[in-house]
Structures are given as C-alpha cells and as structure tokens.
Amino acid sequence: MRPIRPVLTARPGRSGRRLPSSVLAVAAVTAVLALTATACGPSEDGANAEPSNSVGQTSDDKITIPDDLRDRLKEHGVDLDKWKNGEWKNWDKDTWLREAKDFINPIIEGLWDPDRMRDADKAPEQPVDNDISGDKGVTDPTPAPVRATNVQSPYHGNAAESGKLFFDGPEGSMVCSATVVKDPANPGKSNMVWTAGHCVHAGKKGGWYRNIAFVPSYNNSGLSLAELKNAPKEKIAPYGVWWGQWAQTSDQWIADGGPTGGQGAAYDFAVLHVAPEKGSTGKSLEETIGSALPVEFNAPAVPKVDNMTATGFPAAPPYDGQKMLQCKDKPGRLSLTEADPTMYRIGCSMTGGSSGGGWVAAGQDGKPALVSNTSIGPVTAGWLAGPRLGKEAKGVYDAVSKKYAGQ
What we know:
By secondary structure, this protein is of the alpha+beta class. Helices cover 13% and strands 23% of the residues. It has one domain (2-127, 135-403).
C-alpha cells in the first residue's frame, strides 16, 4: 500500500515538479510573487504578470521586489531573478525547501501552458502492495471494486468545485486533484482549495513542491486527449489558472509522510490559498466558479454513512488524466496503525492523479460537504482510502482562513 502518488513526467526542456498541521503547530508557505518571466520550453512565450501586494512595478513595467523580501529569500539560497529563469529546477538538498518559512511559489505566468498541462499526465506511478494483513486497529474487509464513471460534461455544471492540481518536483511535472472549499473568514469569497498533503510536500525525505497551480473544471467539455492537442487554453482552463499563494499540511505528514506503505496517510491533507495567474480581477475563486463546499470535521462514524463520492482526474492507466471521474460507495474502515486515526475506505478503480480529490457526503445539516480526500490505494486500483478529518485537519483549515481574514 502507498499514497496514490502524483503522476510524474520528465520531459526534456520542461522537467520540474512542485512540492506538493495541527492546531498546535502548522506548516505554512510564504508569499506568492508575481514575476515577469519566460516559461520553459521553446514554444512557451512569457508575459508580464500583475504584481502582488509584495511586488512593486516601475513605469517601464519592470517588476521590483522589496529588499527585505529579496534578502530573506537569499538567506535560503533563492535568487528570484534566477528562479524565474529556471533555477526552480535545481533540486539539490540546499534548494529543496522543507520548512514553512522556506516555501516559495512565485507566479511564472505562462509556465502551465496547454502542452505542459496535458503532458503532465504521461508517466504512471510505481506499483504497490495490496496486502494490508499487517495493519493494526479496526479494518473492515476489503471493499468490492467500484468502477469509476465519467462526470457528465460540462464538469462545471455537475462538480464545479472540483479541479486539477499541477506542480513540479525532482522527477518532472506532476498532477493531483483538488476541491474549492468555503472560507469561514471570507464568506462567499473563498480562495481556499483542499487537497492531499503529498500533493504539496514530499514528506519526511523531501520538502515543498514548486509551481503549484490549480485549474478548476479542467477540460470542462470532457475533450479526448487527441482533441486537447489542438484546444486553446480557454478550453483546458475555462476559469483560469490559480497559483498557490500559501499552503499548509499537517505536522504529521511532514514528519512521517512517505511514498510507500501509507506512512502519514491518516494525516494526508492540505489546504492552499490561491491567487489568479493574471492578477486580481476583483473576484475570488468561489465567485469565479460560483460555488465552494463546506468542510465537515465531525463526519459520522462509518456505520452511519450511507455513501461517499470521490472525485478526481486519474492519470495512471487505464486513464489518461484528462477526464473527471467519480466513485460512489458506502465506506468501510481502514486502520494502518493502532495509534493513528481510522481512515475511510471505498471501492474505486481510480488511479494515480486522483490523489487529493474531494470525498463528499451529507454533512450534519444534510447538505453536501467535503469529508475526506483521496490519499492511498493499491496498484490493483480496486479501492481508495482517505483520512477522517479531525482536530488536526481543522487546525490547518482554520490557520489558512485566519491568515487571509478580511482580504
């Protein structure tokens, strides 16, 4: 068993990836900076990005970075002038930023062009063992496989909160799935996105991923891979590209998370605060797509849940990462260690790339709410498991919300 890891691709000239806490201590990311940059690859044309609040702009449209911020980043070996020109591809230990204060995610406008987004799905993930006989605690029998079904297009009309997450890491471009959630500090104007911890941070042996960007209703019309090769960006990203401005995951994931065996899986969740690539339009992400899901941190125990629906963009075979799919099943219990919280588990055929996708069930008020996210599953792709969201998840969620209260 292992996390449903993001799918990797090492594409010549475009390699890179993005690195994908509790109430007592949460891990955070610093500022997103809008930079004028040329994206990687011979066919990608850079464009001037709108500066964020931390970035100045001269009369000749050159971007300026405040000296204190520039100096602080240089303390960690990060030169933004070099970063925007490709230094983000340097993944030695000194530049693979691990701690909260070390995370940076400057907007590089045009980096995630249609080709790069489409090609981020090519490489499948590594096989994992389906044997969980060594698990402790309470584990129900393995659920019967449930075949994932295509979400009816346009996706925005049926799962408006769902989208696809892109990022870069040492082995290449990667993908996950994610969900727009409500922000209690900014009602009706949320810029918060829920995903898996392993979609933003590599866990105990790595650090934060880079170039994290969220695309709501990716490939909204459900075009085939062949059709997408000639599709304009408006078809692929109809509601724009939203870059991670801040990210937090659990302390447990950072300390214990690993690529195999389910280490840290019970705490494998993360929250992003995002900003539009093209600069502020005056509308939040929630206003732009017209919806956001509440998060339920006290979901009923498994026996009381009739069903949960997991949504995602599976990219490992037999899928290609371009279509939104769903699985609906009555959940069972999965316990990886006796000390960790019990996870939810459902039958589902979705594969790598579906990680981070939201699990929706009836909340305490009877209305749809996000109650978990895809974390782990076997190579046989017969089931998925996700964390049960408790005080640690609420701590991450509340911290991100409070950071941007009133903004």
